[in-house]
Amino acid sequence: MGYISDFSGGYISRNKDILNHLELSSLNQFILEKSVYGTPIFKLGNGGKKILVLSGIHGNELPPQIANVYLINELLNKKLTNTVYLIPFAAPKSSMNNERTFNELDLNRASHIKNSVSNLIMQAIEQLGIVAVGDFHSTSFNSNPGCESIFSSKSPSPESFLMANYISRNVGSELISFDFAGSMYKGAIEDVCNLNGIPSVTCEVLSPFGNVGRGTVETSFNQMISFLSYFGI
Prior knowledge:
Layout (H helix, E strand, L loop, with lengths): L1 E4 L10 H4 L6 H9 L4 E6 L5 E6 L6 H14 L7 E5 L4 H6 L19 H12 L3 E8 L9 E5 L5 H13 L2 E5 L10 H7 L4 E7 L9 H14 L4
Parallel strand pairs: 3-4, 3-5, 5-8, 6-7
Antiparallel strand pairs: 1-2, 2-4, 6-8
C-alpha cells in the first residue's frame, strides 16, 4: 500500500453506518488504521493490465466504500494475472464525518484543480500507468441521476462506453452515455480520465445519502466485480 495524500485522513470507525457493515478482522482494522493518516491506495497482483477501483469521492455515499473493502478481502488471496489498485476511501475525513465534500470542495468537480485530493488521484493514475478506472458512487432519490446506473462517454475514449455497456448488461444497471467526456460538467475523475485517454466509468447504486440502503452494498460490489471481469479478472 501507499498514500495518495497525507492531509485527508480520518477515523472511519466514527462513522457507525460504515463500521456496522464491516467485520473487524485484522485486515479491515489495518485498512481503517491506515486511513487515519491520509488516503491509502492498495495494490493486489502484479503484471498484466493495471486497473483502479475507486470509491469515496463523496464521503456520504457509503455503499461503494463498504463494497470496496469487501473487494479487497475477496481478492487478497486470489492469484491475479493483472494488477488491481483499490482506493476504498478517497477522503477518509469526509467519510468519517458523513460529508459529501472535503473541506467544502466537491472532489467530483475538482480533478482538474491542482493538488486537490481528486487531482492527486489523477496524478497517481498517470504515474502508476493505470489503464482503466472504475469510480463507484451512490445516488439518492430526487438527485442526479437518482437511479442505479453506469455513466460513460463515447469520445475521446470509446472503450468507456464498451465497459459501461458490459457492466450494464451483467448487473442490470441503467446505461447512461454521453457523446463526449466532460460535456455536462468539469472535474469528475471519470471525465478527466476519458479526456486523457484512460477509459473510465462511473457506477451508481441507489441509496439515501449518509445511509446504507438494503442490498446496495451487494449491488455496488457486483458492479465492481463486473468491471474487473471486463478485463478477465
